[in-house]
Amino acid sequence: MSNRLNVKPNDLSAFWMPFTANRQFKQAPRMLVAAKDMHYTADDGRRILDGTAGLWCVNAGHCRPRITEAIQKQVAELDYAPAFQMGHPIVFEFANRLVDMAPAGLEHVFFTNSGSESVETALKIALAYHRARGDGARFRLIGRERGYHGVNFGGISVGGIVANRKMFGTLLTGVDHLPHTHLPGRNAFTRGEPEHGAELADELERIVALHDASTVAAVIVEPVAGSTGVLIPPKGYLKRLREICDKHGILLIFDEVITGFGRLGAPFAADYFDVVPDIMTTAKGVTNGVIPMGAVLVKKEIHDAFMNGPEHLIEFFHGYTYSGNPIASAAGLATLETYKEEGLLTRGAELAPYWEEALHSLKDAPHVIDIRNIGLVGAIELEPIAGQPTRRAFSAFLKAFEKGVLIRTTGDIIALSPPLIVEKSHIDMIVDCLKGVLDEIE
Ligand SMILES: Cc1ncc(COP(=O)(O)O)c(C=O)c1O
After folding, report:
1. How are beta strands 251-255 and 279-282 bridged, if at all?
2. What tens digit of pLDDT does each residue of 151-202 get?
3. Mutation test of ligand 1: which of 120, 257, 320 has the most ligand atoms closer than 8 Å to its C-beta?
4. From ligand 1's centre to the CA of 266, what distance in Å?
């Protein structure tokens, strides 16, 4: 174990922490100093059960030897090589492996360093694709209320989480939003996909009628909305979106940054729902969260539309210094091998019934107003304290950490997404802990 385990930082002020209540944290820090498989170790030596796979990313569990070794080997051999006008073999191999496992038709990969960058890349590919085909009047992008597509300007423009948008000016123009699909009055305590709400996809027809199809480039949605608090699409909703996009020549982008790599019990949500998008964004689980990386998978026709003009010219003016970084590529390859060897991309399907039963056993616990689940994702929605939104769930988060389980909260919703190596005994521990937490908090 690292000899940093017992070193306590003595000044927490310099690091401005992301998406954190900085002042609260710095008064009572929660420090993680090591991790293995399903557990973190806190700086006081306590083992913390990881109920969230880090931030929805450590799908194979922590510090997996194959991934660690691949990174060590790669960094000693070729630490960095540019991907602009130059190549290195491992990134090509990794792209091929991703295409092999991707839904049919997604045949090309553009590498990024995060989910946010994958989203920006996907939106730019969509706009440039239409223009490359001589259909450049298609400039509108349609997102969805409560959608989370990262924190860059394109992503917050098509995203629909108000707190992430309201401070940042005019955002992108030419953006519209579908309504969200959360219908607690009709779907509360649904197990799996809700019965009601597929008709909400028809709102796309209304938006298209308003702007005219000839101006609409793409629709982007999370197949299962994660960061807003786990909103599962109503039965038939995604198929309907696909049909409407096809009818009007609009590209469909699935943001699979959370749902990719086994989270739902299938390799991708596209497989789970049997709906193939034109562009698919991924990140997080692509390297098991170990090294920053994102990958945007694109249909052949879209890629090919760029491949014209003089051959010495760059076809797509976009890319990052670290696109396809060799160390991230090595981590990604080792991650895919780990997923494959241990059957992790479908393990969620085996455990989903147990997970569902366990979560729904909390139905009558104090404060609970809804429980939702799909694959190895779950959400427990709490009644907010009047006038103090988010406070109750934040107390639950602090209490769960005290009791040795890492959960995640967003608004007044507890979101759960354990590593896919989770055992039934861990599920029991998470649920028992939450029972205690819900009994104890105000
Ligand atoms: C669906 C979705 N898209 C994009 C992102 C942004 O990813 P990142 O934080 O790696 O930029 C996230 C992160 O949670 C996400 O859930």
Report:
1. parallel
2. 999 999 999 999 999 999 999 999 999 999 999 999 999 999 999 999 999 9
3. 257
4. 19
For 126-147, how does the pLDDT look when each residue is reduced to its tens digit (9 = 90+)? Answer: 999 999 999 999 999 999 999 9
Helix (H) / strand (E) containing 336: helix 326-341
Chain segment 323-342, per-residue pLDDT in tens? 999 999 999 999 999 999 99
The band of 7, judged by pLDDT with boundaries at 50, 70 and 90, is low
Q: How many CA atoms lie within 13 A of 174 on its CB side?
A: 16
- Which protein residues are within 6 Å of ligand 1, measured from CB? 114-116, 119, 148-150, 222, 226-227, 255, 257-258, 283
Q: How far apart are CA 377 and CA 394, in angstroms?
A: 19
Residue 427 has φ and ψ, to the nearest 5°, of -60, -45
Report the alpha-carbon distance of residue 9 to residue 185 in Å, rounded: 48
- Of 325, 320, 259, 247, nearest in space to 290 by CA: 325
pLDDT digits (tens, 9 = 90+) for 337-386: 999 999 999 999 999 999 999 999 999 999 999 999 999 999 999 999 99
The letter for the amino acid at 109 is V
- Compute, in angstroms, the gap from residue 116 CA to the centroid of ligand 1: 6
Pairing of strands 140-144, 216-221: parallel
Mutational pocket test of ligand 1: of 17, 20, 148, the residue with most ligand atoms within 8 Å of the beta carbon: 148
pTM of the predicted model over 0.85: yes
Q: What is the pLDDT of residue 1?
A: 47
Domains detected in the chain = 22-60+344-440 (3.90.1150.10), 67-341 (3.40.640.10)
140 beta partners: 216
236 by Cβ neighbours in 10 Å (0-12 / 13-18 / 19+) ranks as: middle
Phi–psi pair at 58, nearest 5 degrees: -85, 65
Is the separation of the CB atoms in 253 and 220 below 8 Å?
yes
- Proportion of the chain above pLDDT 70, given as a percent: 98
